[in-house]
Design a protein that fits this description.
Length: about 290
DNA sequence: CTCGATCCCTGGACGC
DNA sequence: TGCGTCCAGGGATCGA
């Protein structure tokens, strides 16, 4: 499940492997996850992919102006969200595509940039500069860029559960379920705590934990749970460092208490019931399934 | 403002 | 071997 570190890994890989290439043609399969498929097919051919950058859990492929457009004014972008199961990677045009490949961008070097997504929870959109400005404005701070001095007041300003805040892309862009749980475990904060209930020191700890964990995960090319592979088809390694996520019933590596799972903010949340003290009055709605 | 519920979608795990 | 069911969860949406 691609979150910030996984998307960063893919974006860096594509920056190396496809930046500078020109798109020759577009072929589409199922398009129900594409904003305006006809526009993609019409606008992309002839444009060069100038760069590939991450924005939250999105990738932005910066596109060159076409020959008939004024060079300075027109810098559109292809927005790509991998959803839960998306992958974006180049392949030789002759290679058999993965199942569920729905977008083929023929490149000027004989390869294709292909988007595959079995569940089609992803999203692809062609954005003019104005569209892009509007789209991106809806998102919160990048968790790696925000400083502790801004992070603490930000989370303390909301009454929502801290887990919900971390997952809210309008507050912070790029954090998903895995890294939210891992950060909360590291900072010893229960996921059901309200943001406004954290004191400055706890908020500061959470900020440090979040940044450390995201940076380490990027170094290890993300977490491969389910089927995440980067743009070179490699698995990430950070899943080997998970302390909470996916570890229901296993010993907390700090205190040996069994990690618990509960549904918080609508998501499976893993935490240590001893290290991460539940807020007063909170009663775990235990996740069903497997007693383990 | 914040919440939970529901939907989207397919593959994989699991129980029988 | 197969079949049904549950579950994964990012995001949109809707009603409470």
């Amino acid at each position: 499940m691609p979150e910030l570190p996984e998307v960063e890994t893919v974006a860096r890989g594509l920056q190396q492997s496809v930046a500078g290439r020109r798109v020759l043609s577009v072929a589409l399969g199922k398009t129900d996850f594409i904003d305006n498929p006809a526009k993609i097919a019409e606008e992309l051919p002839g444009r060069r992919i100038e760069s590939v950058r991450r924005y939250g859990k999105f990738m932005l492929l910066r596109l060159s102006p076409r020959a008939d457009e004024p060079p300075e004014e027109h810098k559109p972008a292809l927005l790509v969200h991998l959803g839960m199961t998306g992958s974006l990677a180049p392949a030789p045009a002759s290679a058999p595509p993965l199942k569920h490949t729905h977008v083929f961008l023929a490149l000027d070097d004989g390869r294709e940039l292909r988007y595959a997504d079995p569940r089609r929870f992803g999203r692809i959109a062609y954005l003019s500069e104005a569209d892009e400005f509007q789209e991106l404005a809806a998102f919160g701070a990048d968790p790696l860029e925000i400083g502790a001095e801004d992070f603490a007041p930000l989370v303390r300003a909301h009454r929502a559960r801290i887990k919900a805040l971390l997952l809210d892309q309008g507050v912070l862009r790029g954090v998903g379920n895995i890294y939210a749980d891992e950060s909360l475990w590291r900072a010893k904060i229960h996921p059901a705590r309200l943001g406004s209930s954290l004191d400055r020191s706890q908020a500061k700890h959470l900020h440090a934990a979040l940044q450390d964990i995201l940076k380490k995960a990027i170094l290890l090319r993300g977490s491969s749970v389910a089927s995440f592979l980067d743009s070179e088809g490699r698995r990430g390694q950070y899943q080997q460092h998970h302390r909470a996520y996916g570890r229901e019933g296993k010993a907390c590596s700090r205190c040996r208490t069994r990690i618990r799972r509960a549904i918080i903010a609508g998501r499976s949340s893993y935490y240590c019931p001893r290290c991460q003290r539940a807020p007063r009055g909170w009663r775990a709605v235990r996740g069903k399934r497997k007693t383990f």
